[in-house]
Design goal:
The N and C termini lie close together (11 Å). The strands form two sheets. Strands 5-4-1-6-7-8 form a six-stranded parallel beta sheet, sandwiched between helices. It has a two-stranded antiparallel sheet with strand order 2-3. It is built from eight helices and eight strands; from the N terminus they run E-E-H-H-H-H-E-H-E-H-E-H-E-H-E-E. The chain is α/β, with parallel strands linked by helices. The longest helix is centred in the middle third of the chain and has 18 residues. Helices cover 40% and strands 13% of the residues. Strand 4, helix 6 and strand 5 form a beta-alpha-beta unit.
């Protein structure tokens, strides 16, 4: 088993730390109700999440991963969804098993921890705070913190600059192909959890450095 000299550990939010699908599904269905469309349901939303709420709304409208809805419909739907999600954010979400213990143990090693997500800051910070883990992160990079979102490397490089830690001494922990692509482009090592949101694709196909069952396992890969 490979071990990494990781002085900085960045962790994805949705699908890695938090199962946020119940909140998102509630907001999607409430939005569909307001638009006079059929409810989409949690199972469909679970397949659509992982690339930010804007893309989620487009997927909910088209019921396809990559299609574009009519611009007028999307313009109506997005603010409605944002209002519903503001109301539901943190209400039904839960930490995945092992997350609180894993993050607490990593913080106790003295390494710098950051959360890097494509979710907007207005939703990210309250969610982390509500679930009791915001205190463990020295930096939170949200989807609107930098000009680009994952899979672009800029959010990861922004965090590395913030902590003044070189990418080669940094580790990304996520659940999706976008986390792997961002880590590779930034020069980070990358671990992926074997649960989470990757649109039904086995995360091993994205070739992370290793796949883990729980955040508790991250410490086993550190020197």
């Amino acid at each position: 088993m490979s071990r990494f000299e990781a002085r900085l550990i960045l962790i994805d939010l949705d699908g890695t730390l938090v199962d946020s699908v119940p909140d998102l599904a509630w907001a999607v269905d409430a939005t569909m109700d307001d638009l006079g469309l059929s409810r989409r349901g949690e199972q469909a939303v679970r397949h659509w999440v992982g690339n930010g709420v804007e893309r989620l709304v487009k997927r909910a409208l088209t019921q396809q991963l990559a299609a574009e809805p009519a611009s007028e419909l999307y313009a109506r739907a997005l603010p409605v969804f944002m209002a519903h999600y503001q109301a539901s954010n943190g209400k039904y979400s839960r930490l995945f098993p092992g997350v609180e213990q894993g993050v607490r143990e990593l913080a106790a090693t003295g390494r710098r921890l950051g959360c890097v997500t494509n979710k907007a800051e207005q939703f990210t910070l309250p969610l982390l705070d509500t679930l009791g883990i915001l205190k463990y992160f020295g930096l939170v990079v949200s989807g609107d913190t930098t000009p680009h979102k994952k899979p672009h490397p800029e959010p990861l490089l922004h965090a590395a600059r913030h902590f003044d830690i070189a990418p080669e001494h940094s580790l990304m922990v996520g659940d999706s192909r976008h986390d792997v692509e961002a880590a590779r482009a930034a020069g980070f090592k990358v671990l992926c959890v074997n649960y989470g949101y990757n649109h039904g694709e086995d995360i091993r196909h994205a070739a992370p450095d290793a796949v883990i069952d729980s955040l508790v396992d991250v410490k086993n890969f550190l020197t």
